[in-house]
Amino acid sequence: MALQQLYYTSCEEGLSGHAGFQFAAVSEGVSPALMRHVEALSAYDPPRSLAYPRTPEELAACPQNLGFAPGAQGDVVFRAVYVGRDFSERFGNYFVHALAGPDLRAELAGALPIELWGAPMWRATPDAGSRLAPLAGVERGPLDRRGVAGFVARHGHGAGLAGLLTAAARAQSSGRSVLLVERGAEEAAHWIAAACYLLPREVAESLSFATFQRRPSPGRLHICATLDETVREAGTVVADMALYDFVAGRFADRDGHPLARLLVRIGMERAEEAWRTAATFAVTRPAAGDWDAWHPLVAAATPAEVRFEPEELAALAGWLRASAAALGAARTEAIGRRLLDHAELADAHLWAVAEAARTAGATAVADAATVRVLGRELRAVVALGLGPRPAYRLPAVGGGVRGPLAEQCAAAMDRAAPGVRLAVALWAEHYGVPVDPAVLRRCGTALGERLDAVPADLAEKAVARLAPVHAGLAAHLVAAAGRRRPEVMTALAGRAGKLLELRGLEEYPLLRELNLVRRARERRDETLDCLRRILPLRPDPSLDQALLDEVRPGGDWSLAETIAIVDALQRKTMRAPDRVVVRLAADALRRPVSSDSLEDHFKLTYRLSRTEWWTQLPAPVRGDGERLLDLNNRLNGPLDAESVREIMGREPGYTAAARVLFQLTGAPGLVVRATEARYVVRILQAGRGGAYEALIRHLDGRGGGRPDDRLLAQVAGLLIARRGTPDALRGRRDRVLGAAVKRWPMPELERLGAVLDGIDPESRKALAGLMSRHGRPARGERLGARLLHLVGRLLGSGPRKGPAGGA
Length: 807
Known about the structure:
This protein is α/β, with parallel strands linked by helices and 807 residues long. The chain has an eleven-stranded mixed sheet with strand order 6-2-1-5-4-3-8-9-7-10-11, with helices on both faces. It is rod-shaped and about 180 Å long. It starts with a strand and ends in a 12-residue tail after the last helix.
C-alpha cells in the first residue's frame, strides 16, 4: 500500500481556492483532518538571521525540518524547507512535503523515520496539478548507524548521548519533551538518529521529532530541535522541557540511566541485535519504558567486547541468580554463555552465574563458570604460595569441573616450590578435585627435603588432611634413616616428628623404632619399656649390640638398667644372644663399688650367678662376684671376732665393699638384710634424722631384754656418725640415750658406756648423766673382749674416720 503525499506552501492557487498558505496538492483520499494535522505539525519559522536570504547560498543555509509524528489519522513524516519569497515576493514562505499512511512502518520497509533525512524523494517545489500520486516506495537518506556513530565519536559533547537517550525514552511515557540544541538541523538529525539507533526498534519507530523548530513547544513532540542562536532568544527555552544543548554542553541529565550508558557502550551498530536477543531472555516481556527491567536483559545480551560497569555486573549476576528458576535451563544457559564471554566478570559475578546455572539445570554453563572462578582462585593460591582460604562451597561436582581443575592443579604443581605444591593440594582437597596420589607423595618427599622453607601451618594442614603427603614425608625419612640415622632421630624430635604424629607412624616401624630410641635416651626410666616396644618392630626381634650402643652411645648402662634387662631376659619377655648379655653384664659389674651401687652390684651378681651366663663372664668379673656373694653370706650370719678380723683383712680392692657392708648391717626398723644397707647410707647422708627416729621407735617398742651386739654397735655407730648443728645433734643424742636408759638392763647400759668411753667421751658423759637422773648409776662393768674387738674394728681405735665407700 502506497503512502499518501501532501504539499503545503504559500501559493496563488491551491486547494483552498484563494491565495496564501495552503495545500497545493495532495493524494486522493487525504482527509481534511489529516490535512489539519500536517499543517499544525509542519509550520516553519526561519531563524531570524536567515529570514531574508539574499543569495541561493543563504537560502540553502536555512535549516530543514524533518519531522515525524504518529496520529489518529495515521503516521506522518514530513520535511519543511524555507524557500524565501512566495508568489507575491514576500519573505517567509516555506514548502512542506508530507507522507502519511495508516501503516507507515510497513511502508518505510525497515527504514526509521529519521533515516529519511536527506532522502532524494523530498520535493521543494509543487508539481503541476493538485493531485499527487501515492508514493509507492521511499528512499533512505545518507544517515546510517556507522556514520552516526562516527559523528558522535567526533563530537566534543558526545558524553551527553546517554542522557539524551534516557530523556527520549522517558518522553514517551512521561510526556516531557526534549529540547535539543545544535548548530544546525543536520547535526540535530544525527543526534535524533543516534537515539533511535540505540532504542529498541518499536520505540524508535514511534519516537516523534522535529529537526528544527524556532519556537518549540512542549508536549507535542518527543524531541524538538532548535539552533543555538534561537535558544538564546527570550522565551525559547521552555522550563518543562529537558534541555540537551550540544553546543554549550548543558544537559538536564548527563549520565542518564545505567541501561542508556550500557547501550552507548554497546554501540549503534550492535544495539538492535542486543535488544532482539534481550527480548528472547525475558520470561515476561517488560513494558517498553521499564528500563530497570530491561537493563539485566540487555546486559545479558551485551557482546563480549563491551565493557561493563561494576554495578552492572553485580546487578546482572544478582538478577540471573534470582531469576534462574523462572528463566529455565535454555535461557539461563544462553545468558550464562554470553556472560562468560566477558573477561572482566569478577569472581563473585562468575560464582553467581554458576549458581544460577546449577539452579536452572544448565550444567555446561555451571561447570564452565565454576572452572573459571576456581581457576582464578587457584592462580591466586599459586601466586601467594600460602595456605588457601577457599571462598566457595561446592556441591558434588561432575567431571566437567573436576577434569579441567585437575589439569590446572597438575600444571600448577609441576616444578613448583614445596609450599606452593602443598597449598595447591589443600586447595584441591577442599573442592574435591582429584590429584594423583603419586604426585601428593612427591609433595611429601619435597616437604621433607625443604621443611624449613614451608610455613608451619601449611605443612600441618597438608600432612593432617592428605594421607599421601604424610606417606611421602615418612618415606623420605625412612630412606634417609638408612644413611643418616642420627639426623633422622633429630628430625623426629623436631617439626618432622610432630607432623608425622598428626597421622601416626603405625605403618613405619623403622621411624617408630627411632622415636623409641630417642625417647629411651631422653628418659632413662623408660629405657626398658622402649626396648620392649622396639624389638617387635624389627624383622629379628632380639636385642643386639647395635641397638644397645644406639640407645646408650657411650655404653653407659647403669646397674639398675642392666638388672632390668637381665630380669626381662629371664622372664623371656625379651631375648638376646648370650654374647650381648655377657658383655652388658660384664661392663656393668666392672663399675667401681660405692655405697650407692653396692646393693645393685649384689643384685646383678646374684641374678647372674643363677644363669648360664655366669660361666661366660670374664674370670676377673666372675671372681669379684664370687667374693661378693661369699661376703654377703658371712655378714648375714653370726659375727665373731675372728670373722670380723678375716673380713677386714682382705685385699685393698675388696676392703671398701667389706667395710660398707659390715658397718651398715641392718639398721633397726629400716633394713633387715645387709644387701639393703643403701637405705641407711642415704638417710645418714641426708642428715640422719630418719635413722635416729627409726632407732628410737625400735628401742621404744622393744621392751626390756638384753640387746644383741649388732644393736649395741648400731647405737654407738649412729651417735658417732652424727652430723648437723650442735643443738640439734645434742637433742637427738639425748633421745637415743634416753630411750636406752629407760629400756635396757643396767649391764647393757654399762656395756654401751664402755664402748662410748673409748671413742666418744661426750656421748659417754651424756649417758652417765641420763642414768643418774633416772636413778641408774653405772657400775663400771666393761664389755667382754668379743664386743670390744668388734666395735673397735668397726669404728677405729680413735676418732672415727669413714672407710672408703662408707658412710
